[in-house]
Amino acid sequence: MALVSADSHRHHDPGMLSVEEALERILGHFQALEPEEKPILDAQGQTLAENVTSSLDVPPWPNSAMDGYAVRAQDVAHAGPESPVVLNVIGTVAAGQSPRGSVGPGTAIRIMTGAPVPPGANAVVPFEQTDEIQRRVEGRGLDHIGVLTAAPAGANVRPAGEDIRRGEVALRRGAVLRPAEIGVLAALGRRTVRVVRRPVVGVLSTGDELLRPGRPLKAGKIYDANSYSVAAAVARYGGIPKPLGIARDNLPDLHRKLDHALAADMLITSAGVSKGDYDIVKEALVQRGRVSFWSVRMRPGKPVAFGTLAAPDGRQVPHMGLPGNPVSALVVFELFSRPAILKMLGRISWEKPSVEAALEGPIRNSDGRRVYARVQVTRRDGRYHAQPAGPQGSNILTSLARCNGLAICPEEVPHLEAGQPVRVLMLDWPEEVQGYCG
Predict the structure, then answer these.
(1) In which element (H, E) is residue 231 found?
(2) pLDDT in tens, 326-350
(3) Three-state DSSP class for 91?
(4) What is the DSSP code (8-state) at residue 58?
(5) What is the dihedral of CA 8, 11, 14, 18, to 10 degrees?
(6) What's residue 211's pLDDT?
(7) 384 contacts 355 by C-beta, under 8 angstroms
(8) pLDDT digits over 47-100, tens only?
């Protein structure tokens, strides 16, 4: 383990919150949003706002699990390859059809997978356990069939209600709708479902130096990456991004942009929250709302603002002020904005998976903040390995694009060296790692 610096806490600014303290304050301002009724295909990824109780059995009647012959188990109890039991075939039933007739002693009905089991039958013998192929080769008809094996009662029969019984709660409130849950809803005959609505999140960049992508690049200008990366992150985690453009470094323009944000469920800005002369987001927030905190004991991402803006209808719109550097903005989003969005979506859990990995490069911690280093996690020789994903400057966005996790160096640890174990917060879970998750 790395040595613990005895004086590392002297670097702590008492005005800075820990990551846990900041997250607790932030999440205290959020709750699940109101429900809405949506078509089931449009509700994927949303959280159920109701218990879904079945009004029918699924399947609604006993049906065949195989292509074969519906028989009475007692008729074929002694069947074998050397002593086939020959039955009279009295009909055929396919999926979607109703049986015409019932199976009595010495008879069988040809049946397809999913078709209702005819009255009188209590087992299905698969085609390959009969002499059907031989009869076809020899040109004999299929008005009789030889059964070559015994079939106990219930063999290859799906009973009514095997999956879901009438009156049963099939899906519980709070479940996240994935493809399987959408399929369950469809199997119950539901066209719509009541879910927690998605939050609308305003996304605003600030800075005179910013240009929208696609415009000619001018001296002293850079393209606005934060609006796009943050809006994409909002959408990835289930929110509806509302791009608000770029606010220039003057209060009138910023106030005009903020006016358009007040209908949203949350506002995320980037830049303007540190200690520079042109960091006016803090000033605007003081004028229009309440500020909870300004900085968090972490790197990257120390300048983090959180507070609320007063809307004309009396609502308090939560505001997250991200740092301007693109890596800092996305790391702060992952740690704080993502959980807030998930809580508004009705989720009760928002932690990402983490793994312990062998560090393959050093992590330095010079000022007693928690460091989130960008790493690429792979699996070799039965363990995880965390390779630093390039330069760690908060402006190096490509290093974040190359990483799949954030290696954590705690506040009280001044450095971690190659070969030491490190806890890695996984941002993504690629196939080469996922195969070893358990």
Answers:
(1) helix 226-236
(2) 999 999 999 999 999 999 999 989 9
(3) strand
(4) B
(5) -60
(6) 93
(7) yes
(8) 999 999 999 999 999 999 999 999 999 999 999 999 999 999 999 999 999 999
Percent of the chain with pLDDT over 90: 81
181 Cβ neighbours under 8 A, 6+ residues apart: 48, 171, 175
Residue 71 contacts residue 103 (beta carbons within 8 Å): yes
Nearest to 249 by CA among 226, 275, 269, 272: 272
pTM of the model: 0.86
Q: How far apart are CA 172 and CA 350, in angstroms?
A: 19
3-state helix, strand, coil split of the chain in percent (to 5) is 20, 30, 45
Q: How far is CA 70 from CA 78, 110, 357, in A?
A: 16, 6, 56
Alpha-carbon distance of 23 to 382, in angstroms, equals 34
Pairing relationship of beta strands 85-93 and 144-147 according to DSSP bridges:
antiparallel
- End-to-end CA gap in the chain: 26
The radius of gyration of the chain from alpha carbons, rounded to an integer in Å, stands at 32
Calculate the average pLDDT of the chain.
91
